[in-house]
Model the fold of this input.
Amino acid sequence: MKQASRNKLLVGTALPVLLALGLYACDDTLTNAAEPQGTLDPSTISNPEGVEASLIATYRALDWFDGAAFDSWGWAASSWVWASVTSDDAYKGSEASDQPGVTDIELYNWTTNGTDLYLNDAWKGAFEGISRANTTLRLLKGVQENSPGLISDADAAGIAGEAIFLRAHYHFTAWRMWANIPYFRGDDTDFRKPNSDSATVVTELLTDLDSAIALLPETPRGGSAGRVTRWTATAYKGRVQAYANQWPQALVTLQSVRASGVYALEPSFDFVWTGFPERRNGKETILAYQATANDGDPDGNNANYGERLNFPHSGSPLQGCCGFHQPSQNLVNFYAVDATTGLPLALTDPNWNANNEEFEAGATTPVDPRLDWTVGRDGVPYKDWGPHASGWIRQEAYGGPYSPKKNVHEIASGAQSNVGWAPTQQNAVPIHIFRYADMLLLLAEAEVEVGSLENARTIVNDIRTRAAARVQGPGTSKNDIAVPIDDPSITWATYKVGLYTTPFASQDEARTAVRYERRLELAMEGQRFFDLRRWGIFQQVLNDYLTLERTRRSYLAAAAAVTERHHLYPIPSVQIELSKVNGEPQLTQNQGW
Done:
């Protein structure tokens, strides 16, 4: 049995955390037996402390958590492998010989052994989280039955609500990848369970989220920032409804969250992805993995482990590995704006993606300032690490000249780890899984789909107004990492953000504006592939992307054509094998695989 690492997950709480709880998964989520194996004696953890520890272990599964599996990048909280590298946002990066399984994934060759191993990491991560949630619910029920009153009614409701919400989140994450998945509840005893169809899973998700909404308090239980609340679950319900194209229902749900005033956009973009502790869990955070550094774990594994490959290479001041998740030329070009309107150039210029040259400091093309909060490019300040330089790239001929940026901490934040492998690239930057700008843009989509185009325009303009608030500054201190858009210190770029000043002429025009805004705002955050897929345009967009990118990155010449079967990921072969009952697999492979 592999042990979960210690993690002071929830800010402001001192709840004890047990190491290995009685979970269903050892090396694989499914076992060859009907009964869970390797569980602890229930009496050891059948108490309030054990229940709370089990719940914290359930939160811990939001990101890579398996200390014995060094390469578990398939379960990074950001889904960078599955949603960025398989989209037009990012290349795998690094060099050809490192993590070739991710290359297979990027090339849409999803039947290779390397892809299957990554898929199995993702499956295990999701269903480990589910089993931890169900363990928590069973432990809670046992304590309530055997020791009535030992856990207060309010705490019991909150614990149950948090566990049910997390169970829904992990199922949703699996559903986004495979659609047709088994749905596990606390009374399941044989985990060799057949898939449910996609529509049934959606119904189950909404049932769980409604249950969580009914149980959860409006503010984090015990004042522990990072815990989910009734509003977390309500926002997430709207997310599920949007993904399921239940637009009238999503509209009502998401409007209620917006009207509550619980969440708000941060005052400027630099407050969103940051290591500064005073900005942690701000008004924009709906759900985030609460990465921690220097918390007593000798290997630093409670930090941003799932992102630790995704930093500039050893030639940078970060002095480590590994140069993965590099922004694509397509993404960089997408940030160009019309010099007159400040709106995306892609709206009016069919040649917006023609530039094949490195877009470095001093280029005269005006750009949306979110480019330089998302992408590290030569000559432009990299937060407060100094100007990005070509020596920061592991192999430019392979992965291109750009570095990821959102997940990187500021020097001045003190968020960097002091221990573990490549500690300069481990940090306490929370990994946003769902944030308010994402939710607002889902609400804008709902407004478009029901015909309320002016409401959608208002939301998009709100997002764009925040984008113009402050931009990357010279970064010589904490005070000038971000500066006003017209600050005279800016010599590396011309930043411009315009608003949509006239009503959208049609639903199609409004839909395009919202979709473009999602890319500009959420790039490199693990949303893009799933957005393209749910919009029904992934084949067209990605095949067009590959046509040009093959001329920019030669290894992409080996990419397979994106076809309908790529709509869903294949279920990992080992999980189908492990699901057998009397020699017959209970899991059915997705169509085309």
Summary: The first helix runs from residue 42 to 45. The radius of gyration is 23 Å.
